[in-house]
Design brief:
The chain is mainly alpha-helical. 67% of the residues lie in helices and 2% in strands. Bound molecules: Phenylacetyl coenzyme A (FAQ).
Length: 310
């Protein structure tokens, strides 16, 4: 029976069709998807913090309403992704514990501080931009619930990216001090946003198997390079510059090449030693504890309803 399951699984992957929750799947496939999807969910949830930090200081009522809507969208993305991950068999509580105890990773980018209003622009434009470049191919991931969640998430991320771009454009066309603030934000978020695509291909232990299983469709470096090619055009419209002395067009491959990234810094950040790791996790634990009464009330209500229907 195991062999029949494996054969069927191989066939579905070979046909580029989809694996669904009730289908037989290799344990390693289940495990790597649980890892990637839960890390992705955690990133959406932790990723609310740098922007939530600016809601009370948004420069106008309109900006505040837009930023609040964006941060709420990220919460929604976290929820679809936790639900998707649960279909692989790990309950949400357990996933949440893995985050709060520091056992599970989340994206390195959210361990950098958001220092100015312009950072809301740089996060929208660069961080959501990188997220889209990475996630559009994930819409075709072989696991059904993941691919389907990605479709809606990508639509919302596209809107987020435009709102970030528009913040930067307005600042860039503002006073010299505003333009400087926009440039400073781009300078600080450029390299960390390129690191969102993961380690270089030569040092990416999961890529081979995830590509064979059609979870990943392009390599970390390929997507990073594609992203640089996108922003290199957009930065011209912004009237700003990318802080990359080695940026150049390679006519032979038709791609933009970027500077070497600081992989020592990257490793330190994902090991828990970035500028804001401790603060982000503490904030998440506090929020979880502050929400205990909501969970208790929901459980009490569910028990009451269950008694009524007995
Ligand atoms: N940060 O072998 P690989 C967002 C880990 S977007 C932290 O290459 P893989 C939207 C990796 O887990 C951000 N850890 O791994 C938003 C692995 O460790 P492990 C979230 C990283 O999985 C915007 C090890 O390094 N997006 O939230 C990072 O094949 C604004 C070796 O790496 C996703 O999660 C990193 N940057 O490729 C929200 C997308 N990179 O688990 C709010 C889905 C790598 O073996 C505001 N994920 N690691 O111990 C993916 O596409 C993949 O997992 C990659 C990594 C490409 C990130």
């Amino acid at each position: 029976e195991e062999q029949a399951g494996q054969d069927r699984f191989n066939q579905i992957i070979a046909e580029d069709s989809r694996i669904e929750p009730r289908d037989w799947m290799p344990e390693a496939y289940r495990k790597t998807l649980t890892r990637q999807m839960s890390q992705h969910a955690h990133s959406e949830i932790i990723g609310m913090q740098p922007e939530a930090n600016w809601i009370t200081r948004a420069p106008s009522l309109k900006r505040k309403a837009i930023l609040m809507a964006k941060v709420q969208d990220e919460a929604g993305h976290g929820l679809y992704l936790y639900s998707g991950t649960e279909t692989l068999g790990t309950p949400r509580d357990e996933l949440n514990d893995q985050l709060m105890t520091g056992k599970a990773k989340y994206s390195s980018i959210f361990n950098y501080p958001a220092r100015s209003w312009a950072d809301m622009g740089a996060i929208g434009w660069l961080v959501d931009g990188a997220a889209i470049a990475n996630q559009v191919p994930l819409c075709r991931a072989s696991y059904g619930p993941y691919g389907r969640a990605m479709v809606r998430i990508c639509k919302e991320e596209s809107f987020h990216q435009r709102q970030g771009f528009e913040i930067l454009l307005e600042l860039s066309n503002g006073t010299p001090a505003q333009k400087k603030m926009a440039q400073d934000a781009v300078n600080r978020f450029y390299a960390p946003s390129l690191m969102m695509f993961g380690p270089p291909d030569s040092d990416s232990p999961n890529s081979g198997q995830s590509t064979a299983w059609k979870i990943k469709r392009f390599s970390n470096d390929e997507l990073r390079q594609r992203f640089v090619g996108m922003i290199v055009e957009q930065i011209k419209i912004l009237g700003l510059t990318l802080p990359d002395p080695d940026l150049r067009f390679d006519a032979e491959t038709g791609t933009w090449l970027h500077m070497d990234l600081d992989w020592v810094e990257f490793k330190a950040v994902i090991a828990g030693n970035g500028p804001c790791n401790a603060q982000r996790l503490q904030r998440r634990r506090d929020a979880h504890n502050e929400g205990a009464w909501v969970r208790e009330a929901a459980a009490a209500y569910a028990a009451k309803m269950a008694r009524k229907t007995e």
